[in-house]
Design a protein that fits this description.
Order of helices and strands: EEEHHEEHEHHHH
Domain Vitamin K epoxide reductase: 52-198
Number of domains: 1
Largest sheet: 2 strands, antiparallel
CATH class: Mainly Alpha
Keywords: Disulfide bond, Membrane, Oxidoreductase, Quinone, Redox-active center, Transmembrane, Transmembrane helix
Biased composition (Polar residues): 13-37
CATH architecture: Up-down Bundle
CATH superfamily: VKOR domain
GO cellular component, one term: membrane
Helix content: 55-70%
Number of strands: 6
Structural class: mainly alpha
Number of helices: 7
Shape: elongated
Radius of gyration: 21 Å
Strand order of the largest sheet: 1-2
InterPro entries: VKOR, VKOR_Actinobacteria, VKOR_sf
Amino acid sequence: MTTRAHGYGPEDGSNSSSLTHNDSIESIDSPDSNGPVGNNPFDRLTGWRHSATWTYLVMLVASLGALLVSFILSGETLELARHPNAKLECDVNALVSCSTVAQSWQAEIVHVGSLSFPNAFFGIAAESIFTTLAVLGLARARTPRWFTIATWWGGLAAFLYAYWLFSQSMFVINALCPWCLCLMFATTIQFMALSHATVSVHRIPSSERFGALASGLASYYRLHFDLMVDVLWIVAVAALILIDKGAAIF
């Protein structure tokens, strides 16, 4: 059985070609095929905030910011490799010190034999991928459903990894790297935008298999609870830094 592919914008009768593999590849904003249109909770996610243009634009800006910071951190890593006693521009005091963080074992957790690879190098690779994915989203590229799910899990891994490094910096190394904090906040916004797009644009999870979860997520974004949670999250992290390290910073 063949089904007509869904696209963006008005339908063009002259391009009503059919796809025999539409079960595996679909337009990123096509209605969920698991139920009648109108009974799908994702149908209520309308407006510019829930569009592919907005969600992927936010993701693109955050990913580009994270990519830029990753390049800066990589440059500082190379500088320390050449001159171990060098003072970096972001070495403000004993607490705010990029070099202290960069010379910790947490800054190079991947080892192959006697070789170690700085986290910043992986940041360049990962953020290049997320930047490309954001561009694909803005271009309304058709992607398999499994690819979208894998992308979200990759975003979650990057998010959790960034906060693991933050916790190590705060409570183990006892030094803060300004560029690392910028990378963490950029990764946070990137993951928030990716999660929004996964639900509102790709309509994942399936409303047929995960009805209650799909309905809950649709309401979460439709009522703009995500904005409140996102802002509170960022404010809470900033407050934690100021409460725990504020006296030493200032």
